[in-house]
Structure formats: C-alpha cells, structure tokens
C-alpha cells in the first residue's frame, strides 16, 4: 500500500494521469480526462515549526504573543501588528489579533476583520473577511451527494433508485453544450425533478479552444464560456436545475498554475500572463447562466489549497499583485479534496505539514455556502482502507456542516467501471465501501 508521499510522487511523475478522470469524461471505460487530471499534483513544503504553536483561538489582548504553526511570533503594539519584531503590511487601530484555524486574523476599531494570507513570509498582505469564529450552519437537504457521468448506461429511473438507496440527494454531472450530452442531461433532470432530487450541473467549458490551444484573451474566453453556459441553462432550467458549477479545476491546468507542485495558497502560484483567460472563462459561464436564470446559483471550483486563486478572482487581482480587474462574485464555493491533498480542515502546503482550516477561511472570506464536489482516497487503496476512509471523512464533514457552512459533499464517483474510484460496478455495490457509505447516511440524517 502506498503512503501519502509516495502517492503524491506518482502524481508528479506521471503528470496527474495516475489519478483522476474527473467528472467531464466518459467513465465506464476507465478513460482519463487529462486536463482535469492535472489537478492532482504534489504540494509544496513549508518550514518545520521551531517553537510551540499557540492554542487555537489565542488572542491579543489576553495573550502577550501568538506563535503560529511555523514558529513566527506575532505581537500587537499601539494598534500595529508585528511578526518577529517587524511590521506586517500596513496595519493601524488594530484592537484584536487572533490565531484561529491555522491563520492570523486581526480586527480594527471599526470591527472589520482581516486575514493574513502570507504563509511563506513573502509579503504582508491582509484581505477583508468576517470573524472566522462565527459558526454558520448550512441549509439542510443536499448534504449527501455523489458524482456521475452523462454517458452512464443506467436509466434515469435506475439513477433515482440508486441515489435513494445510498441516502444521496445530490448528483453532480458534467456536460458540454453538445446536443447528445444535453439530451441525456434533460432526461436525468426530468426524473430527478419528479423524485425530489438535486441535479448539480458541472458546465464543462474551460480555458482551451476546440483544438487545445489556450484562448487568446479574456474576451474570447468570456464569450466561449457564456455561449456554452447559456445553452446548458436553457436546456435544463425547465426541469428544476438551479445550481451550476462553472468550470472544473480551471486553476489547475497547464498554463494556469505556475508549477503543479505549488499548493496554491498564494496568488503568485498562478500564471499571470494567462490569468485573464481563467477569469474570462469563469465570468462568462456565470453570466451565461444568469442570462437565462437570474436566480440560479453559480459555483466556482478549486482544489488542493488554491485559496490564492480564489482570493485573486474574488478581489479582481492578477498574480503579480495588480488590482482593479473585474472581480468575480460566485454564489457557492466548491472544492476538491482527495486523500493525497491532506485534511481539508488542516490543509498543509505539503498535504501533511502545518496547515489551516480551509472551509473556515472560505466561510470568512467569501461568505457563501461551501461544497466539496469531489472527494475520495487514491486508486491504489484496498476496499477496506477506502471503507474506513469513507466513514472517517463523512464523519468529519458531517460534524462541520453546522459550523462551516458545508452544504454538500459529493463522493467521486458512482461507477468508474472498475474498483479504483467507483462505489459500484454495473449496478452492483462494491463492498465494504458501499455499505460504509450507506450505513453512515442512514444513521446521520441531513437535517
């Protein structure tokens, strides 16, 4: 059995094809969507802690100093924040300095909170947020989900029966504007509407044109995304579809991330030249959906520890730090979290070391519901390991749904044509993984 670091090494060596077929491609033949697979890469190392880390929730006033997880000592004097005796960015009138969820936060006399995003001590950037300690409960009803594919041989009626037996209410499926794919999606949507299930649609538009070249500029990417999303929303909106994920791992493509070994916590981890194309594609998809369904919910997707990408898009920043660009405002933050990436509630930059609570960060920064739209362990693991992982992960996700605004967690995948990721093959459960999943959902109500 591979250890985590060995698994991550395989991902790096094989360019990601070792891991994921993601949700865009045909799946029952076991084929791989290479573009999406590139998301599954190793993450960068951080410094080893050199002193005792302060307890979570330590604050000044109260404590005289705060030690973070990599040994930096933070203090507050005359309303100014210091790290290891030096000022950190431009701070003033600070009344509270807080260590929470693996991050440093401060609040001024105007009650506005800020979070420090500088885990590598490169700059002193602070970004606005809300108090991370405030618990936010997600809306009940869509918590348990699973991924599938439009080209499954299961009938829509069979899918309804399968999801209900698993205790799932949400089904994530990707499609393009291709009429064959849309027709399959319409049939699923009709069946789900009658059954009271939620079809969560992944819009499979990206940053590349039909021959595999990166779009030439932001405008071209925008209109490509707009057209695809508008077509999909027009086809599916009459059948109860109200949520769309606008792109799949677009921050983890060739040409969008500087190096797949980077964790993604800083905006500089991403390609400055090509960033307008990422922004344009996402913005176009959201606008395309809203042109048909103004009240629809649009999600933007990230993976590994890509809060640097999320922050850049949310704030209208380029990876070089320039601002004033079109900010994105999505309705749902979605994330992928595979075992190799590490614990999403303690996400370290090497997938294993000192980390931070990523859902808490997103809750405080963006103020919208959070979904984990793909999660699983690696394809090399035994079914006993996978079953235990399912029980453990669902327990962690479930316990956080009332505090971290986690609205849904979607297992990847229903049927992968083999036992690498799927929880069943041709309608037959793969055990003990299937039983672990179904047992958890039956004993932990989504309320």
Brief summary:
The protein is α/β, with parallel strands linked by helices and 447 residues long. The protein has ten helices and 21 strands.
Polypeptide structure, described:
With 447 residues, the protein is of the alpha/beta class. It folds into two domains: 351 residues, Alpha-Beta Barrel (TIM Barrel), CATH 3.20.20; 71 residues, Thrombin, subunit H (Beta Barrel), CATH 2.40.10. 28% of the residues lie in helices and 20% in strands. The strands form five sheets. The protein has an eight-stranded parallel β-barrel, surrounded by six helices. A five-stranded antiparallel sheet has the order 1-6-7-8-9, covered by helices on one side. A four-stranded antiparallel sheet has the order 2-3-4-5, with no helix packed on it. The longest helix is centred in the middle third of the chain and has 19 residues. The radius of gyration is 21 Å and the shape is globular. The N terminus is likely disordered.
């Amino acid at each position: 059995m591979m250890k985590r670091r060995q698994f991550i090494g395989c991902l790096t060596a094989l360019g990601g094809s070792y891991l994921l077929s993601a949700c865009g491609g045909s799946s029952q033949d076991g084929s791989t969507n290479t573009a999406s697979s590139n998301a599954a890469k190793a993450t960068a190392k951080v410094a080893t802690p050199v002193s005792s880390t302060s307890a979570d929730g330590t604050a000044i006033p109260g404590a005289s100093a705060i030690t973070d997880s990599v040994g930096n000592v933070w203090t507050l004097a005359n309303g100014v924040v210091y790290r290891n005796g030096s000022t950190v960015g431009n701070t003033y009138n600070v009344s509270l300095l807080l260590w929470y969820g693996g991050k440093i936060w401060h609040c001024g006399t105007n009650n506005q909170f800020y979070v420090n995003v500088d885990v590598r001590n490169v700059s002193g950037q602070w970004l606005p947020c809300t108090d991370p300690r405030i618990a936010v409960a997600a809306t009940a009803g869509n918590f348990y989900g699973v991924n599938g594919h439009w080209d499954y041989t299961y009938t829509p009626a069979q899918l309804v029966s399968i999801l209900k037996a698993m205790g799932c209410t949400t089904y994530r499926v990707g499609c393009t504007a291709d009429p064959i794919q849309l027709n399959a999606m319409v049939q699923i949507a009709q069946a789900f509407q009658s059954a009271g299930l939620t079809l969560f649609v992944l819009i499979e538009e990206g940053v590349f044109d039909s021959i595999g070249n990166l779009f030439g500029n932001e405008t071209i990417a925008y209109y490509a995304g707009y057209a695809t999303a508008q077509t999909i929303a027009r086809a599916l909106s009459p059948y109860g579809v109200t949520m769309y994920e606008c792109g799949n791992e677009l921050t983890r493509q060739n040409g969008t991330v500087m190096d797949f070994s980077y964790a993604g916590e800083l905006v500089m981890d991403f390609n400055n030249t090509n960033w307008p194309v990422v922004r344009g594609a996402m913005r176009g998809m959201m606008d395309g959906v809203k042109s048909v369904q103004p009240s629809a919910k649009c999600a933007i997707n990230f993976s590994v520890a890509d809060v640097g990408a999320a922050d850049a898009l949310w704030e209208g920043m380029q990876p070089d730090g320039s601002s004033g660009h079109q900010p994105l405002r999505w309705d749902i933050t979605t994330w992928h979290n595979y075992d190799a990436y590490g614990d999403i509630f303690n996400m370290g930059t090497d997938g294993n070391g000192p980390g931070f609570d990523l859902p808490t960060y997103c809750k405080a920064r963006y103020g919208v519901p959070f979904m984990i739209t793909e999660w699983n362990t690696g394809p090399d693991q035994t079914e006993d390991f996978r079953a235990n992982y399912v029980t453990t992960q669902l327990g962690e996700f479930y316990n956080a749904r009332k505090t971290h605004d986690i609205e849904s967690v979607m297992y990847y995948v229903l049927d992968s044509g083999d036992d690498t990721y799927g929880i069943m093959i041709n309608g037959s459960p793969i055990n003990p993984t299937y039983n672990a999943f179904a047992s958890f959902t039956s004993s932990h109500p989504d309320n």
